[in-house]
Amino acid sequence: xxxxxxxxxxERADVDRIMKRAEGFAEVGRRDIKKVPTLRGxxxxxxxxxxxxxxxxxxxxxxxxxxxxxxxxxxxxxxxxKGESLKDTIATLSAYGPEAIVIRSPxxxxxxxxxxxxxxxxxxxxxxxxxxxxxxxxxxxTLLRRLDSLEGKRVWIxxxxxxxxVARSNVLAFRMMGAEVTVxxxxxxxxxxxxxxxxxEVSFDLEGLxxxxxxxxxRMQRERMRETFVPSIREYAARYQIDSRRLGPRQLLMHPGxxxxxxxxxxxxxxxxxxxxxEQVESGLVVRMAILYELLAGSRPQPGGGRIEPADELxxxxxxxxxx
Amino acid sequence: MTENPISSLQWRGAGGPPETLVLTRASVLDPRAGxxxxxxxxxxxxxxxxxxxxGSADPVEGEVIDAEGKAVFPAFVDPHVxxxxxxxxxxxxxxxxxxxxxxxxxxxVLAMANTEPPVDTAADVRSxxxxxxxxxxxxxxxxxxxxxxMKGEELTEMxxxxxxxxxxxxxxxxxxxxxxxxxxxxxxxxxxxxxxALHEEDHGLSRPAGPHQPHLGGVMHEGVVSAALGLAxxxxxxxxxxxxxxxxxxxxEDARIHVQHLSARESVAAVTAxxxxxxxxxxxxxPHHLTLTDDEVHSLDSRFKMNPPLRSEDDRQAxxxxxxxxxxxxxxxxxxxxxxxxxxxxxxxxxxGVIGLETAMAVLHTELVLPGVIDLGIVVERMSAGAxxxxxxxxxxxxxxxxxxxxFDPEAAWEAGAEGWESRSANxxxxxxxxxGRVLATIVAGxxxxxxxxxxxxxxx
Lengths: 324, 461
Known about the structure:
The structure holds two protein chains of two kinds.
Chain A: H1 12-29, E1 43-48, H2 54-65, E2 69-74, H3 86-94, E3 100-105, H4 110-117, E4 121-127, H5 133-147, E5 154-158, H6 165-176, E6 180-184, H7 194-198, E7 201-203, E8 214-217, H8 223-226, H9 233-240, E9 252-254, H10 267-270, H11 277-298, E10 300-301, E11 307-308
Parallel strand pairs in A: 1-2, 1-3, 3-4, 5-6, 5-8, 6-7, 8-9
Antiparallel strand pairs in A: 10-11
Helix pairs in contact in A: 1-11, 2-11, 3-4, 5-6, 5-11
Chain B: E1 21-30, E2 35-44, E3 47-52, E4 63-66, E5 71-74, E6 76-81, H1 94-103, E7 106-111, H2 122-135, E8 140-144, H3 158-163, E9 168-170, H4 179-192, E10 196-198, H5 203-206, E11 220-221, H6 224-229, E12 233-234, H7 236-253, E13 256-259, H8 265-276, E14 280-285, H9 287-291, H10 313-325, E15 330-331, H11 340-343, H12 360-369, H13 376-384, E16 405-415, E17 434-444, E18 447-451
Parallel strand pairs in B: 1-4, 1-5, 6-7, 7-8, 8-9, 9-10, 10-13, 11-12, 13-14, 14-15
Antiparallel strand pairs in B: 1-2, 2-3, 5-16, 16-17, 17-18
Helix pairs in contact in B: 4-7, 7-8
């Protein structure tokens, strides 16, 4: 893999490889010294044009645990604020010779443009309402730790599908892993043509929810009311909130965060036994380590052209025993 | 409605003496004039003097062009271009835009008024016409806006604008959202005469986040591709419902309207219904809507961003059928130059619009005529039919007509944009496309306005 731009670009083998590496890194996380020297001397730029807590912190920590040098640039307070174009910003940051650029942008396709404009490996950390592939991979990883396989499992993604990059990436990723996916929400928040576009089922009510093995709730933003997508948050919650009455005892619950308590999820299910929400955050770290490893250590340019492809076997990460 | 010759519009060739030209053994095609055969075309004193038997024309006088195996058509008329003057001359100006037109085989273009600032005073129109008389390679008409500053509120002084030489009125780029304002304008048309070119888009439907966030407007066709990409969509009904509204207004006021850039099946249906009901309505379609679909947007390449957007294959088929049947009257490019920095940004942020003058005929020839989708005669007719809605005499090869002709090599193979563009901008959605068929020369009122570089012309006498 050269970049991670979309789930649509990935093959099943890519996902399997990242899952396996993430397991290896999970072991590192249980050690006293949680750091491996794999990416020592490599530079990773985190470029975030949108506010983000978990994605940016988890990419930053993932890079540090791999011993890479990390520069984090946020749009607020940077030259981006002063009207610099994305192209010029990338040209400027490219002067540092980063091996990887992790970018979050409010605009679809921004990561793809960065991949065109720079030599670095590019990770899409969310581009507009398009895709959020690292989220989908960490969600697959989280589920695989519980379910062994997603083959034939039924996943319901519930909420504001229209404005959700997570929904798009996750439908594609879950389907790639063999699951059947239903997207559910108010008709105003389900994009026309999504069934044909992503190969999922569509439901406008929660009636069939009992058949789901996994319920994946999406964040409902309050401004959607003002934009007349829903008449009120109250009515939305009454129809679509996942609560202990609707969530069966054997159903797993997921959410990409941050949660609006009492809107898409009731407080008791957030902290309930079916909830994987905290595990998703934990998975985020090891999966993002695996992604950076895959792009930077797994396959690298060979002097004189071509690329060295990664070995099938994951090399045992070696802990640093003493500070050098 | 009185019809004016193409040469009544301003261009820099007007002062020069007409040439005498003989195009020998040309395959002459002009369905409107009922001409389809091999002739020696004799051009003299700015007019088509004669369609002589092949090889029979007297070669002694003037320039002789060997046109064997080449085609001669009536030159093209584009009722919808953006010359970006005044205000955005870094993207295009009258000189480069009309050079681009001449290179595409056009003998006439009509420039939209959504410049910076918009063309809404008589002084603006007069100054543009003066500039065209100095700089324009082909006769150029200028529309003025319907509303002051294109704000959609107050009418411009249309009678004065008409006296100053405005060829029509349009707020193109924006719809006239308020039906009352458009109704008043249509009432006023009986005073000013000129046609209204309407950009049909219901912003209530095309800006999905609503009035609170107009900047979150739709950026592509609403459909399967927009669902996959998570891009805000512009539904087909944003266009067709406005066409239906404006057709009803035109019918009520007995006014005439020209509907710009049809893009959707529903729009073709709305136009068909209006025409069947006797509404005085004409309409246009672009080469890109006839040949491309929203599938192209999967690449998130901003070259495929324009308004109205590329729609589905089903829409494209409806447009082709509409063009074939005559429901769609003419082809217009909506030539819309943009600076690189307006396009080298993420898709959602990119400016809408593509250039199109230099590729229009070659693209239609390659993508629709050669595969047998549409007859060459229909394309040739529609390429100049945009003259009539604006009261210009359509170009013709018939003897006695003003000599507005294009010489076209149907065999020439070239790559769009490979040798650069005559336009100042390069935002073509066809760049890199392998094309068959090329304009070799454009003749305006008997004067050669353009010769393709590699096309050597033999001169005799």
